Amino acid sequence: MDKKMEVIFRATVPQLNGKLLAITGNCSAMGDWQHPVPMQGKGLIRTVIFAEGSLPFPLEYKLVLIDEAQPGLIIWEEGENRRLDSPTDALSFIGGLLICCTPFRGGVPVKLIGTVIPLFSLRTGQSAGVGDFGDLFQLIDWVAETGQHVIQLLPLNDTSTTHIAADSYPYKITSVNALHPIYLSLHRLGALRVPFRAEQYAAESRRLEDLPSLDYVAVIRHKLRYFTDYLTEHPTLLESIDFQSFVSENKEWLYPYAHYRHLTELFGTVDHSFWKEDRFYNSARTEAWCDATPKEFLFTAFLQFTLHKQLLEAAEYARSRGILLKGDLPIGVHRFSVEVWTHPHYFCVEQQAGAPPDSFSHNGQSWGFPLYNWDTMQCDDFIWWKKRFVHLSLFFDALRIDHILGFFRIWAIPDSCTDGRNGTFVPSLPFSVEEICQAGFPFNPVLHADGILFRPDNADPTRFHPLISARDTKSYALLTTREHEAYDQLYIRFFWERHNNLWQETALKRLTPLIADTSMLICAEDLGMLPSTLPIVLQRLQLLSLAVERMPRTLYTDFYPLEEAPYLSVCTPSTHDMAPLRLWWRENVAEATQYYRQILCEDGEPPADCTPELIRRILHRQIHSVSMLTLIAIQDWLALSENLRHPDPTAERINYPDNPHNYWSYRLHIPISDLANLPFDKLIGQ
């Protein structure tokens, strides 16, 4: 090993109950089994770093708990000593080795429970037509008072591109650092000084707040006008030390973002190619613009400062109440985002990311995100990703990585194509002509490589990818029986076997340095077409997988067996891409009937609607699953009450993944204060 390398031990700690997690082992650096070394950190993760050379191999060690009230009392974990035979058994990254420890062995496994809700869906009466950072305080109080531990939000990044409802899509972000102005809390900002103007704004806020769903365009226009008038009334705020420090500390991303926002308004488009001399980013030009146009720059900068401050205050309040905020990291960025403008070498805009056909979308999904140039990112040790994680850790103690499969491979679709079936995996190992023929398929590039049965590889047109939707085509139907058998074998080998080792190595190479550099608990959104080596990667990095009872992961099973979920997993009955339980029950009668009989062990026909008692039984299964963390969508919590559930379950759907034009506008039909009336009745251990 390089003499400058560090050896990092990382462990997940759901709850310590006043005890310190420490590590000890068979060497002086680890205290020779006599003097445990405390692990550092807050939230759910603890780490300890040893210098290279201080740990002999083979290494034996254990995690222990030190009682802070009784310093001499050491609680040893159960089982055999942990063992590391050589440095090659650890995960390596530039500058060090990473050992991700399984949780402390002993005692009753800790169970964490939480609520999933898009921030824009909150309703308090103090906001202005959209849930905002100020509304988080009431939600935090409710979660704490009901014995829960976690709040999961959707991405909060700026998505402004068109200033119409299409911007409501929270995963098509235009900046990985800038927060969305729509989440500005006018209530926490304060009232305007001019009475008649203050009342006009208050009246408009009430009107927007009374709407059944989010009017995205009206709300963002209202908030930006209010903020403009507020800043006009308080110009001295721009001279505050806190604001000046924020600008100085965040200059690296704040200056380009402010200039980017100016250029999108100046040219009426986020498409960089229309920005004349600014179509290519130039840091000197950007800095000169920020200095030459202080009024416009300061407006954008102070808006981001205010948003940053409001979210940070909510995060600190959550921590003070023992509540963990869990953020959401979109796998991609908008193809005309500020990052693609400032770091074009990190992106490939000729192709777009998406997903192959699955249970969410028969035709697959095309997201419009450019692909990452991972080789380029690796050359500077993934610094772009590391900075992104550091920024998110200011607000969040846990993080959901949306479509973690993107770190293994991505489904790449030509930029001009909107059909997700027309994609290929990157990276991949396409077949040669010889391999196809040796498998017994009489391959003819002229007849079969026209995009129907096989598609030529973009980088090497002498190699070919089986078309993922080929078996639904007429060309496939016209094959002989022998050709069917040969093609099916190639298809299964390609999509389910051929790339497992490649994708495992790829994911570990990309994820290890990021996990080693963050204190956040990382949860993987690992749904879709999963490689068999994915659990190996998650286990080695001790990342939480996702367990959705309605989404089985093996053939010939109707539901995910919650009793078989790993402890390090997130159990949930619904995600924002799915119908909430009541809507699912109504729309999928055959599946609901199967669940009623097979899982709930009831005879006969199920009721037409999922009653509060059935909801209670379903949620009880999730809450008492073996998963460390259970997250319940707010709509499913509300379904516990006949009085609080929405009269129309179709109104509670958040997203339709197969609809790229979905309008993300769902809001609670009742204020957060009414949630106190939900009949938990010891459902979550109260």
Shape field: globular
**CATH arch. level architecture of the domain at 113-329:** Alpha-Beta Barrel
Given helix and strand content, the structural type is alpha/beta
Low-pLDDT stretches are: none
The CATH topology label of the domain at 113-329 is TIM Barrel
- Major sheet: order of its strands? 21-15-12-11-10-24-23-22
Task: Provide the residue-averaged pLDDT.
Answer: 94
- Strand element count: 24
Strand content: 15-25%
The CATH fourth-level homologous superfamily of the domain at 113-329: Glycosidases
From the alpha carbons, calculate the radius of gyration and give it in angstroms.
27 Å
Largest sheet: 8 strands, parallel
Termini gap: 51 Å
Reading off the top of the CATH hierarchy, the class of the domain at 113-329 is best stated as Alpha Beta
Helix content: 25-40%
- Count of alpha/pi helices: 21
How does this model look, in words?
The chain has 686 residues and is α/β, with parallel strands linked by helices. Among the domains are: 6-101, Immunoglobulin-like; 113-329, Alpha-Beta Barrel (TIM Barrel), CATH 3.20.20; 567-677, no CATH class. It has 21 helices and 24 strands. Strand 5 (59-67) and strand 6 form a beta hairpin. It is globular.
